[in-house]
Design brief:
This protein has about 230 residues and is α/β, with parallel strands linked by helices. Helices cover about 40% and strands about 20% of the residues. The protein has eight helices and eleven strands. A seven-stranded mixed beta sheet has the order 3-2-1-4-9-6-10, sandwiched between helices. Strands 5-11-7-8 form a four-stranded mixed beta sheet. The longest helix has 16 residues. The chain starts with a strand and ends with a helix.
Length: about 230
């Protein structure tokens, strides 16, 4: 069995963190490691992380001053040992068979990446496109697909740019009709604190990546419409 590195950035997620990590520890696929990056939490999340790492040696905790989710994920990517990479937000959780189903799909079809659906506020949402832009969660991919690609720091919408950079590598993608990822609406999270300047930066970065590419063009038009209607 190949090792899956599960990257979990955490900043003041004390109400959710134990549930998240418990769901990872309960996986039916046993070859995994968790890289939990505490991004300068001040609500006790850091203590929860250390306590859970003491209970399971497969959990590694990294503490850093508050530098943002992108920096936390990049740190974890530098230390990941797995053949496969998964990312889970600290306020979310996954079903016990999530890794097993994703790894099976990866290996059965020799894919680079598996995209699943998710459950949000009681609604099950299946993937409709070959790529779910806007989040690197709900995916398990080959470590070699990521390579030296990293998240841009200092701005929100980092998932969109990272996703586009991965897409431009032309990966083989499997769409898994399965909703084993449970998304939590957390209004204190970074996804709820995006600003106009970040949209401008995103549009500029997408343009630099080449409007000739249909994926880049679609993302540019989508976020331009958001910017104009905001």
């Amino acid at each position: 069995m190949k090792l899956v590195s599960i990257i979990v950035p955490c900043y003041n997620d004390a109400p959710y963190l134990e549930r998240c990590i418990a769901s990872l520890c309960g996986q039916t696929y046993s070859e995994w490691e968790v890289l939990l990056v505490d991004d300068g939490s001040t609500d006790g999340s850091e203590g929860i992380a250390d306590r859970m790492a003491m209970a399971d040696k497969r959990i590694r905790v990294f503490h850093q001053s508050n530098r943002g989710q992108s920096a936390a994920r990049n740190l974890a990517l530098r230390h990941a040992k797995g053949d496969y990479i998964a990312m889970v937000d600290a306020d979310d959780w996954i079903e016990a068979d999530f890794l097993e189903k994703c790894v099976h799909a990866l290996e059965e079809g020799n894919y680079d990446l598996v995209q699943t659906g998710y459950e949000k506020e009681g609604k099950r949402i299946l993937p409709k496109w070959k790529w779910q832009f806007g989040s690197m969660c709900m995916k398990v991919c080959q470590r070699t697909l990521i390579g030296d690609t990293r998240f841009e720091t200092g701005h929100y919408y980092e998932d969109v740019l990272f996703s586009v950079d991965i897409w431009l590598k032309h990966p083989r993608i499997s769409m898994l009709p399965y909703t084993g990822y449970h998304y939590t609406t957390n209004h204190a999270s970074t996804t709820s604190r995006k600003h106009t300047s970040d949209v401008r930066h995103l549009l500029w970065e997408l343009c630099k990546r080449g409007l000739w590419h249909p994926v880049v063009a679609y993302q540019t038009m989508k976020h331009l419409a958001y910017f104009m209607l905001k």
